[in-house]
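Handout, tutorial session.
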Amino acid sequence: TGQPRQDTNTGSAYLFRRNTGGPDNWGEIVKLTASDGQLGDDFGRAVAISGDTAVVGARFTDGSGPFSGSAYVYVRSPAEAELWIESRKLTSRNAGTNAYFGEDVAIEGPVIVAGAPGDLFGSGPAGAAYVFTSSVFGWNETEVLAGSTGEPGDRFGASVAISGNTIAVGAFGSDVDRVFVFERIPDTFDWAETAMLTTPCGAINSEFGQAIAIKDDLLVIGAPFDDEAAENAGAIFVYERNTGGPNQWGFVAKVISTDSSTLDQFGVTVAVSNDAVSTGAPGNDTAGTDGGSAYSAELYALDTDADGVSDTLDNCLATQNGPETVAETGPSQRDTDADGFGNMCDADLNNDCMIDFHDLGIMRIVFGATDENADFNGDGAVDFIDLGLMAGMFLSAPGPSATQSCDSSAVPPPQQHGELQIITSLNCEAP
């Protein structure tokens, strides 16, 4: 964790280890400082760790001009577990005055990413992110990333994250907040932009992308000034790779806090591990005025019908959506008419959002034949089992589904996880 204001803004960072000082206790093991630290460096503004390597950003250092910025790399001594040695000071070959290199940093394995949101790289001070790769020769700058829509003031690089061969970079200084996704080109040190995500529903001034985290196929984006829960209360948005199409990053959920109030800034920091997302809200008043709170929720923890598909994504929430049992074939989301309702809860054969005598008439025509839409249980035949399923849904709307609603002005209801609400569909026309 960083303490950039410590020692008259020279700054420091602290490392903690689990089970130090007792079972499940996180005990401090070392305090990190810069060997050439100066007053006002803001060392500790950003911190990241991977294995035996830690990196600390100091965005106000003056090596290449006032506020050009830098980042420091520390490695754990193989001889003494609690000794961490400063091994390298990273700067960019381009970053100059007011580049703020090191405003955010990320590391995974042999790759470090350092953001420089004031960098002049590209079209003016639009910002950049620098990629460093470790080899036997040390850490070397191997790539400079910039957004395809870069404009002065974008602050591209104000937030960075990495997981495997994927880097995400936030740019939230212009009228349109954006997060850019880059993928590493196989067998090279080069990275290519593959996606650009913008603030959902065209919201402005939410600072979408001020914080980002990525783990495998999940990307979490903080928008600490989102207004849905309350004015500037904040929110986080979750995207998943290959949702909506191959290699696409599709919206999965929006998370807000039910105990939010004005200026909570929920989403100012974010983290993701497996399916759990965590965030901070420094302005939350639960522990006193601006005492702050931290939140965590497992996105895919709830599974009402025990079909192996989270309630966050399930197109048939109350019933396992065949064709066979989960134990035999794994989870299924069978939806042959692609209307967002799984077959096992969708006897609405004419898609008018009501299961009634019109649908029963269609059932009479296809009964005994092969019709994938009327074969609700997916056993290959339209028979009395399917007719019985239709009877159980008669005179009701299809569903419920986490991905669709028959009310065009409504969205599926949010899921409650303690103080958190997980919203799986956005209604951009709502006031």
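The second record follows below. Compare its token runs with those of the first.
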Amino acid sequence: MTTGCSRTSCSPAPHGPTLLETPHSVIGAAVGAATGNPVAAAPAAIASHFAGDVVPHWNPNFPFRSRALYAFVIGDFVIAEALAVFLWFAFPDRPEIAIGAFAGTVPDIILGVRFLFRVRWLRGYERFHGKLHWEVPLRYGLWPQLAITAVAAGYLLTL
């Protein structure tokens, strides 16, 4: 979907996936680590997902236009979830980090279920999720994702 963009501003997109999954996973891991609590990590990481969607960002919208884009999105998702598994083993005494990494992607997993299986009762969720997005073209939207992800990764590297 296209957004209402001009040279000076962009309006939120009506719906679609969020910023790439790997940033959501890294940010969720950092938020989970910051909570210091496995129980608090999941809701905090889910909240960080929606907060991340408010930041100007680029993402491919479903249905994707090419097989290459499908492969890219699937690869990004696999990396994001593999990161959660890696963090589980890398920080065995800090489960909140891996829980945060996984929970940071849960809102898009739900959206993926809505799109792939056409689950009607998730339409309201799709609308809610879509209203939070501030999508911009790739040349503008990739940088905020990279910057926020780098800050979150930097925090994780201090642990």
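Points raised in discussion: Residues 1-18 have pLDDT under 50 and may be disordered.
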